[in-house]
Write a structure and sequence with these properties.
The protein is mainly α and 106 residues long. It is built from 5 helices and 2 strands; from the N terminus they run H-H-H-H-E-E-H. Strands 1-2 form a two-stranded antiparallel ribbon. A hairpin with a 2-residue loop joins strand 1 and strand 2. The longest helix has 23 residues, at 78-100.
Amino acid sequence: MLKIDLDTKVKFLHGFSHKTRVEILECIKDNEKTVSQIVEDIQGSQSNISQHLACLKGCGLIVGRQEGKYVYYGLRNQKIRELLTMFDVVLEDVEKDVACCENHLD
């Protein structure tokens, strides 16, 4: 079995630890989008979205593709898409417990 360094795993999981980053991931799950399209879809500010995109890129979750003057952001690969789907599947089983959890950080 592949052994991943715990600090690396925590850095990767950090990409999923903020509502805006999860919104961005869901927004680009099926199609690449520009920053402007993401801003419009999730109703955020461009500077805030750009900061979160940088984090997601640094965590290895997304990639940017330059086309003319635009950068299109998309999920890094199919495995990230499958992971987002798996989160939904797992949450179906534990949703009530998560909703009642008071030991979370905002």
